[in-house]
Every structure is written in structure tokens, then in C-alpha cells.
From TrEMBL:
The chain crosses the membrane at residues 20-40, 52-71, 77-102, 109-125, 137-155, 167-186, 192-220, 232-251, 257-277. Residues 2-125, 137-274 form the EamA domain. Its main location: membrane. Keywords: Membrane, Transmembrane, Transmembrane helix. The keyword Isomerase does not apply. It is a multi-pass membrane protein. Belongs to the EamA transporter family. It comes from the Bacteria. This is Multidrug DMT transporter permease.
Length: 287
């Protein structure tokens, strides 16, 4: 999941050389909406409208809200490194929502694990962090995008346990359809929505559709159905490290010992977090 999820940041960087980000995301969602339809049409037709509407709302937060916040922040001048760092604070956002709004008790061990994970992320990302040239308010956009996905994460985990939940492919289809409409409107406000007839544009759409969306988002929702939001999102502390490996393999960007050290620290944080969550769940089952 982490490998596929991290491909999205590399794909976004790759696509900016060939087309506006919103145009690529629009056609990424459009392509998946068309390709998945034959596979999910029967289930969609027989699914209650309330279930579809709930998944549509989750999709707006998970896909449209998250990508729009991060992409628009980069477009306005927030550095890509800082946007990636904020996006990878998803475990903290998820736990904060569960703690503040759902009144869930978060053990100190979990907070300690998050602190270790954050320290590791900062170590890995330190050479890529710059403030950029964006207006002050623009720095709130990637934060809003991250929190949008955190809301969707908690909501989806709770919705998955209800009767009438959609299958994975149908869930992805609904999310792509509603996000397609959002990004069509965003791109129309900036220019044409017509695809660009170049190999680079096609590669950008194909990469982000197959690896980032079906692979990254798909595996994320699969894991979320089997575990808690905090536990699933915690492994994304490793996303910066894997992203830099992607960048090294595709763009020849250098790796460094601080990146390795940060990866180890993040890994320790994940172990601490997941161990704490596992113990809490075991105690709950005994009770």
C-alpha cells in the first residue's frame, strides 16, 4: 500500500511537465469511471440510494478534497516538499479527529508513536523543505486537504461496518465519478478540459489512475476495512521515504544517510503506535 500510495506524489511531479494538475486528475478520474463501469454497473443499480450518496460524500473528502488542497497549494507556490510533509501527517489528523470529535481515548503510547513517526518524517524530508513563494493563506490548503482525507478515513471505516456497504471497485467508481465532476469544474475555471494528445499526458493519466488510484487508494480502503483508521494511516509515516526512493529510481535524485535514519525512526514510531492500538483492542475484546 505504501509503495503504491507514494507513487501519487511522483506522478504529480511527473505530470506537471505535460499538463495542468487538475486536467490530469480530471482525466484520471474520467478514465477510471469509464473502465470500471462495466464491472460495477450491476451492483450500483441494485445499491440503495442512501449508500451511494454516503459513498459520494466520502469520495468528495477522500479524493477531490485531498488532491485539490495539495495540488492547489503547490500551484500557488507552496513547496512540493512542504506539501508532501503536511499530507503525510495524515496519522495525526486521523487520531485528532477520533479524539476530539468522536471522544475516543487515545493512549499515551499512541501519541508517543506519532511523535516518533513525525520525527522520522522530518528527518527524511529536511533537505526538501522550503517555504516557497505562496501567500500566507495558501499554506492552509494542503492542511485542509490532509484533514479532508482524515475525515474520509474515519467516516469510511465506520461506514464499512454497516449493512449495504459497497465492494471495493464500486467504492472507487463512486469516488472517481463525483471527483470527476469537481475537477471538471476546477479545470474549466482555468482553461480547457480537453485532453492533450501527447505521450507524456497519457503516461501521467495512466500512472496516476492505475498505480496511485487503484493501487494506492484501493489498498488503503482494503486495509481500512480490516483495521482501525489510526493503525492503517500510521504506516503512511513511511511514505516520504518510499517517495524519495521513487524519485531516485525515476529522476536520479540522490538518497542520503539521514533519509535512512529517518526511515528507521518512522518505523519505530509505527511499531509503537500499532502495538498500542493492538493492546487497546485486545483489552476491549476481553471487556
Amino acid at each position: 500500500m505504501v509503495v503504491a500510495w507514494s507513487s501519487g506524489f511522483v506522478g504529480m511531479r511527473f505530470s506537471t511537465d505535460y499538463a495542468p494538475v487538475f486536467l490530469v486528475v480530471l482525466w484520471r478520474c474520467a478514465a477510471l469511471s469509464v473502465c470500471l463501469l462495466p464491472l460495477v454497473a450491476r451492483e450500483i443499480v441494485h445499491t440503495p440510494r442512501t449508500v451511494l450518496l454516503r459513498q459520494a460524500a466520502i469520495g468528495l473528502f477522500a479524493l477531490a478534497g485531498y488532491i485539490a488542497g495539495v495540488a492547489k497549494g503547490i500551484e500557488l507556490g507552496v513547496s512540493a516538499g512542504l506539501c508532501a510533509l503536511i499530507a503525510n501527517l495524515l496519522p495525526i489528523g486521523t487520531v485528532a479527529i477520533s479524539s476530539i470529535f468522536l471522544r475516543e481515548r487515545i493512549p499515551r503510547r499512541t501519541w508517543a508513536g506519532m511523535a516518533l513517526g513525525l520525527a522520522g518524517v522530518l528527518m527524511v524530508s529536511r533537505d526538501a523543505l522550503t517555504l516557497g513563494s505562496a501567500p500566507v493563506w495558501a499554506y492552509a490548503l494542503p492542511v485542509a486537504g490532509m484533514m479532508s482525507l482524515a475525515v474520509a478515513t474515519v467516516w469510511q471505516q465506520r461506514a464499512a461496518s454497516r449493512i449495504g456497504s459497497l465492494s471495493l471497485l464500486s467504492t472507487l467508481w463512486v469516488h472517481c465519478v463525483v471527483s470527476c465532476a469537481v475537477f471538471a469544474g476546477l479545470q474549466m475555471s482555468q482553461g480547457s478540459v480537453m485532453p492533450i494528445a501527447t505521450a507524456g499526458f497519457a503516461a501521467s493519466v495512466g500512472w496516476t489512475a492505475v498505480i496511485s488510484t487503484i493501487g494506492g487508494y484501493g489498498l488503503y480502503w482494503v486495509c481500512l476495512r480490516r483495521s482501525s483508521p489510526a493503525r492503517v494511516s500510521s504506516v503512511l509515516f513511511l511514505s516520504p521515504s518510499v517517495t524519495f526512493v521513487w524519485a531516485w529510481a525515476l529522476f536520479g535524485e540522490p538518497l542520503s544517510w539521514p533519509m535512512l535514519a529517518g526511515t528507521i525512526v518512522s518505523g519505530l514510531g509505527i511499531v509503537v503506535m500499532t502495538t498500542s492500538i493492538r493492546r487497546r483492542l485486545a483489552l476491549a475484546d476481553k471487556g
